[in-house]
Amino acid sequence: MAERNNPAVGGNGHLGNRSRTWTAPVRAMTRIIGADGAPPPPPTTDVARSSVVDCALYVEGVRQEGQWDYAEALAAARSRPNAFVWLGLHEPTEDEMAPIAETYGLHELAVEDAIKAEQRPKLERFNDVVFLVCRTARYLEHARLTEHSEVVETGQVLIFIGPAFVITVRHGNASKLSPVRADLEARQELLAQGPWAVAYAVTDRIVDHYIEVADGIEDDLDALEEDVFARAGTSSIQSIYQLKRELVEFRRAVVPFQRPLLTLTSDASRGTVPKEIRRYFRDVQDHLSRTIEQVTANDDLLNSILQARLAQVSVDQNNDMRKIAAWAAIATVWTAAAGIYGMNFKFMPELEWRYSYPILLTLLVTTSATLYRLFRRNGWL
Which of these, 114, 162, 204, 290, has the minimum number of CB atoms within 10 Å of its CB? Predict the structure, then answer.
């Protein structure tokens, strides 16, 4: 796990220099009095929005009753043995994240990543807080694959794991965490392992969604392959390329996640991740490895389908050109006759023959029919 040592971080894990990020009180006072001393505008509905989805205190794996404020819950968790706080956030703003980060002692660089949510999967350590970034994915159902079909929806889940707390920050709707909390609360013996049990459950759900997406893409590939190699295939190159782009987006979420999981299951995580939880992470890592293999195989198959479709297009174009050339050859016979008899020569014996016109028409039709049969026999028509 990569550790960032920043002089702005104090020994107790709280930020020493908050001039960069924690200016929420100043901005709040500015909004109250206004820049020019005028009263602030009336509040809108967006002000009442809260990014806190759920905040719970767990003791020995059992959720404590009542509604908890995140600061009060952290104080209660630190005063009790084998207790921790699980704070769930959904797309928090900078103003909402600032007091939470100050209360829990989160590093400003990790907080900035959690707000913007534009990071690759990674694992970092800031003093006694571990920061895990995960990319989420969800398969979108569609009736038929077209050049505008959206197959994969992606998002991010960022996890702060501390000694007595775990904070999950979710961006997008690709992988909701409320079912994870419900399932984990039913497994008190696992939840009693502490914050790392939550990290395992979240990553396990994310990888399960990876498997669903990979299976869905594989079904699309089967349908696409059947359509491409059908006698009257109608799949366009645009639809194949669209699925290729969706697969690339999914691969960007899956493949980089392998390195953080390998770190969590290695000896380097001893002393940080409980031994029992490392076993669970190994199971998640195994599922992820199989998903990566499936994604790689699907990518290779999709490349083969794309090349096959391009070859089919080239063959169809060649067939069209042969048909055009065959009909042009047949038309050339009539054009040659018309060109010869269109010459203004004074002495042309055929002009005086009584049967020259029907003989010429018979010769032209016979020649054209012979050429047609020859082209048809050779597959040009």
Answer: 290
Q: Give how far Cα 50 sits from Cα of 22, 54, 93, 176, 178, Å.
A: 18, 10, 9, 17, 16
CB 202 within 8 A of CB 180: yes
Q: Looking at the predicted structure, is the pLDDT value of residue 121 above 70? A: yes
Token pair 């008899």 in the structure block, residue: 341
pLDDT tens, position by position, 339-376: 777 777 666 666 677 777 787 788 888 888 888 888 78
CA distances to 67, 141, 185, 250 from 210, in Å: 34, 15, 23, 8
The residue among 55, 118, 60 whose CA lies nearest residue 88 is 55
Rounded Cα distance between 185 and 59, Å, is 11
What's residue 143's pLDDT?
Answer: 80
Residue with tokens 């077209």: 146
Average pLDDT over residues 277-301: 93
- Give the 3-state secondary structure of the chain: CEECCCCCECCCCCECCCCCCCCHHHHHHHHHHCCCCCCCCCCCCCCCCCCEEEEEEEECCEECCCCCCHHHHHHHHHCCCCEEEEEEEECCCHHHHHHHHHHHCCCHHHHHHHHHCCCCCEEEEECCEEEEEEEEEEECCCCCCCCCCCCEEEEEEEEEECCCEEEEEEECCCCCCHHHHHHHHCCHHHHCCCHHHHHHHHHHHHHHHHHHHHHHHHHHHHHHHHHHCCCCCCCCHHHHHHHHHHHHHHHHHHHHHHHHHHHHHCHHHCCCCCHHHHHHHHHHHHHHHHHHHHHHHHHHHHHHHHHHHHHHHHHHHHHHHHHHHHHHHHHHHHHHHHHHHCCCCCCCHHHHCCCHHHHHHHHHHHHHHHHHHHHHHCCCC
Q: How far apart (Å, rounded) are the C-alpha atoms in residues 43 and 97?
A: 20
| Structure-token match 């050429």, residue found | 371
Q: Which amino acid is at 209?
A: H
Q: By the 8 A CB rule, do 202 and 157 touch? A: yes
List the 83-90 sheet strands across, edge first: 2-3, 122-126, 129-139, 152-161, 165-171, 83-90, 52-59, 62-63
